[in-house]
Design goal:
This protein is an alpha+beta fold. It folds into two domains: 125 residues, D-amino Acid Aminotransferase, Chain A, domain 1, CATH 3.30.470; 160 residues, D-amino Acid Aminotransferase, subunit A, domain 2 (D-amino Acid Aminotransferase, Chain A, domain 2, Alpha-Beta Barrel). 28% of the residues lie in helices and 27% in strands. The protein is built from nine helices and 14 strands. The strands form two sheets. Strands 7, 8, 9, 10, 11, 12, 13 and 14 form an eight-stranded mixed beta sheet that branches. β10, α7 and β11 form a beta-alpha-beta unit. Bound molecules: pyridoxal-5'-phosphate. Pyridoxal-5'-phosphate (PLP) binds next to α7 and β12.
Length: 299
């Protein structure tokens, strides 16, 4: 009888057709022991955080919003001038990893693509999937958030594109530090605000608000990630006749909105129950509908 592994790792031999393969003539991807060591200590992904990633949710072996994640992966690669990823090979690796984890109701699949060993010219790529944590409490009971200044103006992407805001780079140390700051302040998560007072995003999530009967996300033209989960929930809204909009949002809106959520690929929709220590209402029914819809996505 076969058992589902706790995690699965696939290493790509040639993550981009525009760069040499790691090993001449080797198979496009190898499923290897996830607990063994595979990545060189001089890999720029490790030494400089010079690379990109995606985190994709999988339900019973089906990766969710796969094509949207692959498109964003390619956009992040372009922002970092990485060789264009060979999406067919990445898709095959993601599918193989997701398939091996089909025995888990929910899994998370990370695609990692780095510039490789310094001076070598061969990028590194791997896909690692694992059973995801149980997010039932966050989805049901919600999160207390603090707003933190990201230190950039809201239009930083057009003024200073080299800061790579809006690309999903491996340099998430700042995002992790912000989450620790939230914990120090007795909260669960963060909403970043620009230095000129515009609501941006969470360190690992997109902000959604219910305002005047519309489902709103901060935008347009902000230096934030295009969320695949937000996009799915806008599709849900369209099916249910709920108008949607991208709008410049202030911290005042986080208090006055009818509901606020942090949404992301693996945790799905978590209602925000307090902002900077002030409790705020949430919409339990709509939250449950969001999460049923997100769990039911089959592509
Ligand atoms: N914004 C940031 C900074 C993120 O890291 C993430 C996901 O990790 C998101 C937004 C939400 O994106 P998605 O819904 O595609 O998971």
């Amino acid at each position: 009888m076969s058992t589902t592994p706790a995690s699965t790792l696939a290493i790509l031999n040639q993550p981009s057709r525009h760069a040499p393969a790691s090993l001449d003539g080797a198979a496009p991807l190898r499923l290897v022991d996830p607990d063994a060591v595979h990545i060189g200590v001089r890999d720029l992904g490790i030494t400089r955080g010079d690379g990109i990633f995606e985190t994709i949710g999988a339900v019973s072996g089906t990766p969710q919003a796969l094509e949207a994640h692959l498109r964003r992966f390619a956009r992040s690669a372009a922002a970092l001038d990485l060789p264009e990823p060979d999406l067919d090979t990445w898709r095959a690796a993601i599918t193989a990893v997701a398939d091996s984890l089909a025995g888990h109701r929910e899994a998370a699949i990370k695609t990692i693509y780095t510039r490789g060993i310094e001076g070598d010219g061969r990028p590194t790529g791997w896909v690692h999937g694992f059973a995801s944590s149980d997010f039932a409490a966050a989805r049901r009971d919600g999160l207390r958030v603090v707003t933190l200044d990201r230190g950039y103006r809201h239009d930083v992407a057009s003024i200073s594109p080299w800061l790579l805001q809006g690309a999903k780079t491996l340099s998430y140390a700042v995002n992790s530090a912000a989450l620790r700051e939230a914990q120090r302040r007795g909260a669960d998560d963060v909403i970043f605000v620009s230095s000129d007072g515009v609501v941006l995003e969470g360190p690992t999530s997109t902000v959604l608000l219910l305002r005047d009967g519309r489902l709103v996300t901060p935008g347009p033209g902000l230096a934030i990630l295009d969320g695949t989960t937000q996009d799915s929930l806008f599709a849900f809204a369209a099916q249910h006749g709920i108008p949607t909009a991208l709008e410049l949002t202030t911290t005042e809106h986080l208090h006055s909105a009818d509901a606020v959520w942090l949404v992301s690929s693996v945790r799905h929709a978590a209602p925000v129950t307090a902002v900077d220590g002030t409790p705020r209402a949430s919409e339990a029914d709509l939250t449950a509908q969001f999460n049923r819809y997100l769990a039911g996505r089959r592509d």
